[in-house]
Amino acid sequence: MAGAYVSNMAQYNKMYRQSLDEPEKFWGMMSKDFYWKEMWHTLNEVNFDYTKGPVSIKWFLGSKTNLAYNALDRHIEAGKGDNIAFYWEGNDDESRAYTYNEVYEMVCKFANVLKSKGIKKGDTVAIYLPMVVELPVAMLACARIGAVHSVVFGGFSADALASRVADCKARVLVTADGVMRAKKLVNLLDIVDNADKILKADKEANHKLDSIIVVERNSKAGPLKEQHEPWNKLMAGASADCPVEWMDAEDPLFLLYTSGSTGKPKGVLHTTAGYMVWSATTFKYVFDYRPGDVYWCTADCGWITGHSYITYGPMINGATQVLFEGVPTHPTPARCWEIIDKYKVNQFYTAPTAVRSLMSFGEQYPEGHSLKSLRVLGSVGEPINPEAWRWYSKHVGRGQCSISDTWWQTETGGHMITPLPGATPQKPGFATKPFFGVEPAILDPDGKEQDGACAGYLTIKRSWPGQLRGIYGDQERFEKTYFQLFNGANEMISKDKYITGDACRRDKDGYYCITGRIDDVINVSGHRIGTAELESALSQFEHCVEAAVVGFPHPIKGEAIYAFVTLEQGYEMTPEVQKALKQVVRSEIGAFAAPDKIQFAPALPKTRSGKIMRRILRRIAAGVTDVSEFGDISTITDPSIIDELLENAKHAS
Ligand code: 6R9
């Protein structure tokens, strides 16, 4: 692509080699793009191997900086304060533009509001907001004064919100009264009040909220009560002058809870300097963002994609972006294409599930729009199947756009394996090549690194600036989850690499294709949901004895949730019970995690050591009825269970 930052593979290869061979020089060059109150003196100090001491990751040592300063003040000082930061598009027909000057003023005022609530450097603030401008503003206000934000996606239930607030010990919660999602009113205040009650009643958690700040977005949610403080009222009394807190490189920036294969969600910790450099550098190169471009990411700030590619990466680059409150199919399946033409969007970033959903309405919707401003089409969150890739490229990109299938995780802070527009020749279904500084290694079942074309466990051999620094309050879980890999016989097969939890394939050209999780995490519409969390939610149902959950292929969501539930003696799996079980998951986690199918299980298939044989359950969920396709079933304690499960599968719903 003419004029791209990286315009061909020779240039990519040269930069990639330098990033690995001369990292000081490479990151020295890249870090010139930022404002450093104090420059770093040591690039990194890293230990991945727990046998040599605690796992520890530090980057850009000796530096002092601030992400909000880099995202706002720096651009304003350069005379760009009147540039548009956000074109906000509401769920229905509202819209409004915000300049960098306006966002700066809101951030400073809200930072002062937080200070007036006693928030100081190192304190945690919980944010539970829909996609209104106050969401990135609240995040940047925290960053400005060194407070740690913990954003909870607006689709989580009161229970899930309460447990996250208690875990990170946030005393201030920022929320909204209500919001429309397509045609449905989401009453956030009700959820927040319930979470508040749950916290007050939970003696063990021993934690409560001191203040609840409410953005008045939709009054249909009902009037504010005594415990709610209106955002506007607090802002009206706040000064717009707020000095920046200069942060050390490894001072915490945020926590973001994500699901793993075991236990409750973990608070992934990101810190200051490394995350800043990683989110902003990947944004610039992967979207080939150039001054004047209009960029749009449809993610919610409640997930990592919204953190790195709405609030931080784009803002630090001084980008103009669309901030979208609604859903891609409301009021019609042409909504995205209308917005792209309205603002002449150059880079569009969404999830495969959205592409597949829009695809199901037919190409007449994108074809009915110009879309000629588009240059880069991004994809994130789950594997994009070649059919959806081709539709996206042909009907949205008109064969003229680069398709950027970006593989990364909450834990990686930003893109890891991704094409660079203009440089990387593309292949449908492939996330293609590693970003600068990323050194993948594919391990076989014995933990041995493989060469050339191969398939296996995806690991990363060395640290990169955006890597997570820990799991909040749990160093042991951090080390076990990300740096120790075990085989089926529970032998440790790797202890000095970052374990991604994904499997992948590499072809003869060195291109990577991510094939899915190797752990018990289900990826539904790009949302990570742990089977352990789902099972513990289902077991809250009063007549549930045991539950096992697996994923099964779904044409739009990628994966959907299938639950096998054993009920107390004498209880039948009626449609009412199925409904009640789904309701339990809605209230324990959130509606987006409700199982798609539930079936009765007289018992679960287990090995002699008591392990649930999920492999068998996955086959049943996928509709396989021929037992010869179930693989080795010799270790099952009671083979007759399989026939009973297959019989009951007919009534799954
Ligand atoms: C950014 C984000 C991470 C998991 C990851 C993988 C899956 C993400 C992908 C992809 C194939 C891609 N994933 N991007 N799989 N191709 N381009 O989604 O973070 O919510 O933490 O999920 O999502 O399985 O391990 P997160």
Automatic annotation (TrEMBL):
CDD domains: ACS (cd05966)
Domain of life per record: Eukaryota
Lineage start: Eukaryota, Cryptophyceae, Pyrenomonadales, Geminigeraceae, Guillardia
Family annotation (InterPro entries): Ac_CoA_lig, ACAS_N, AMP-bd_C, AMP-bd_C_sf, AMP-binding_CS, AMP-dep_synth/lig_dom, ANL_N_sf
Domain (AMP-binding enzyme C-terminal): residue spans on this chain: 533-611
Enzyme class, UniProt record, top EC level: ligase
Keywords (A to Z) from UniProt: ATP-binding, Ligase, Nucleotide-binding
Pfam families: ACAS_N, AMP-binding, AMP-binding_C
Protein name per UniProt: Acetyl-coenzyme A synthetase
Catalytic activity: acetate + ATP + CoA = acetyl-CoA + AMP + diphosphate
Cited NCBIfam families: Ac_CoA_lig_AcsA, PRK00174.1
